[in-house]
Amino acid sequence: MPGFELFGEEEKKQVNEVMETGILMRYGFDGPRKGVWKSKELEQALCDQFGCRYAQLTSSGTSALTTAMAALGIGYGDEVIMPSFTFVASFEAVLSVGAVPVLVDIDETLTLSPIAVRAAITDKTKCVMPVHMCGSMADLDALQQICKEHNLTLLEDACQSIGASYKGKMVGTIGAAGTFSFDFVKTMTCGEGGVVMTNDKDIYTKCDGYTDHGHDHLGGADRGADQHPFLGYNYRISELHAAIGLAQVKKVGKVLEIQKKNHSQLKEILSQLAEVSFRVIPDPEGDSCTFLSWFLPTEEITRAVVAELKAQNILAGNFYWYDNNWHYIRKWDHLKNAVALHRLSDPQKDALLALEKKTFAPSDAIMSRCISTAIGLLWTEEQLKQKGEKMVEVVKGVLNKMKATA
Ligand SMILES: *Cc1c(COP(=O)(O)O)cnc(C)c1O
After folding, report:
1. Per the structure, how many domains does the chain have?
2. Whose CA is nearest to atom 7 of ligand 1?
C-alpha cells in the first residue's frame, strides 16, 4: 500500500536536483534556483494525473483540510458533518478553524451513511465532509444530492484514497474541494505533505494565500512586494518534500495496478469462506484497492480471529479499527472529554462533551466485525497465497472451535 515500498533512484535524483541549487523554499530566490521549481511542477503533475484544474500543496494532509475549510469560509460555530470512522486529522482540522465537528454513523461502505447525514442537518450545518476510507469511496451521488437540497458545501477528505475514482472522476476532485495526504504511509508520499484540489479558481487562490501567511504572490520576484488580502498561516511544503512527490506521482499508476491485482487475488482466497462478507463499494471499478476490508458474522468471532492472528504472529497488516485509537470514535477519549491545550469555543466544547452520551450503534455493529488487510506492493504470488491461506485457516479454526463449544 504505501508508496515508499517503491522508493528507488528516482526519488534520490529528484532530491539531488534541489540540493544542487540549495534552494529548499518553494517561493522566491528566482536567480539561484536556476529554474528548479519542484512544488510548482508537482502541482501541475497532480492536476494532470488526477484531473482537476487547481492544486495547492501543503505541509500535510491535516493542513490541507484546514486550508480547504478556511478557503470554503467554514468557521466559528459552523457545523461540519463527518463520519465516526476516520482519522483524527478530520476533526482536528474542523476544530482548528473554529467549527464544530458533528460525528455521524457510517454504513457498510465504511464511509458516511447518507441517512445519518440527513438526520444530522441543522440550521448551523455548513459542510458535509465524507472521508473516503481505506482506498474506496463514499456514495457521492447521494451526498451531493443532500448538499444541493440543503445548500451545503461538499469537502472530500480523500487523504487515504489517492487514485480511487467514482463514476469516472477521481475522488478528491468531485466536491467543492478535496484533499490528499502525502504523509509517510500514504499511497504516494512526500515524507510529509498534502494537497488541496479544486476546480474553482477563487477557492484555489484563497488556498494559495492561506498556506503562505496570506501572500497574494503578485509581487513578482520580490516577496516583500506581495500584498496580504487576508490572514493566513505557514502551511507551505518544502522543495525537498515536493521533489520526493514528483518521483512518487509518476509511480501512482504502477501502485494502483499492483494493488488491484493483489486485492483481487486475496479476495478470491477469502471468498472460499461463506462466513466472510466484504465492504460495499459504491463504484467497484474505482476502488484503489489499498485495503481489502472484510466482515465476520459477529463481534465475538471477529475478536477471536484477531486474537488468533496475533497469536500466530500474522496480525501485521490486518487492522481491527474498532479497538484502534486513531481511527474510530470509541477510543477518542480526548475528543469526547474536550481536552484541548487552548480554550475551545462554547459551541465546540458543548458538542464534544455531548459525544460522551451519543451512541453509534449502527457504526459499532459494522466496525466490531470489520478487519482491513493492507495490500502489499512487494508481495510475491507465493507470499500472497500463503498469507491468504493462513488467514483462511485462522478463520476456519475459530469457527470450528466456536461450533464445538456452542
Ligand atoms: C492521513 C490522513 C489525514 C491527514 O494526513 P497527514 O498528512 O498525516 O496530516 C487526514 N485524513 C485521513 C482520512 C487520513 O488518513
Report:
1. 2
2. 61
Same domain, 177 and 157: yes
pTM of the model: 0.97
Instruction: Give the end of a domain, one of 227, 252, 277.
Output: 252
Residues 175 and 264 reside in one and the same domain: no
CB of 89 sitting under 6 A from ligand 1: yes
Ligand 1 centroid to residue 60 C-alpha, Å: 8
Rounded Cα distance between 154 and 169, Å, is: 15
Q: Which atom of ligand 1 is nearest to the CA of 185?
A: 1
Q: What distance in Å separates the CA atoms of residue 74 and residue 254, rounded to the nearest whole number?
A: 37
In this structure, the answer to whether residues 226 and 363 fall within a common structural domain is: no
* CATH at 58: 3.40.640.10
Do 132 and 200 lie in a common domain? yes
End-to-end CA distance of the chain: 39
Report how far ligand 1's centroid is from the alpha carbon of 271 (Å): 31
Confidence of residue 401 (pLDDT cuts 50, 70, 90): very high
- Residue 161, ligand 1, Cβ within 6 A: no
Alpha helices in 192-332 (DSSP H): 201-210, 239-249, 252-270, 299-311
For residue 227, the number of C-alpha atoms closer than 13 Å in the C-beta half-sphere is 3
Q: Is 90 in the pocket of ligand 1 (CB under 6 A)?
A: yes
Q: Which of 228, 252, 276 is the last residue of a domain?
A: 252
Three cell numbers at 86? 476516520
Residue 340 belongs to domain spanning: 253-405
Distance 61 CA to ligand 1 centre (A): 5
Q: Describe the crossing of helices 381-405 and 299-311 by its angle, rounded to 10 degrees.
A: 130
Nearest ligand 1 atom to alpha carbon 63: 9
Which three cell numbers mark 300?
465475538
Q: Of all atoms in ligand 1, which is nearest to the CA of residue 89? A: 10
What pLDDT digit, counting tens, does each position of 41-94 carry? 999 999 999 999 999 999 999 999 999 999 999 999 999 999 999 999 999 999
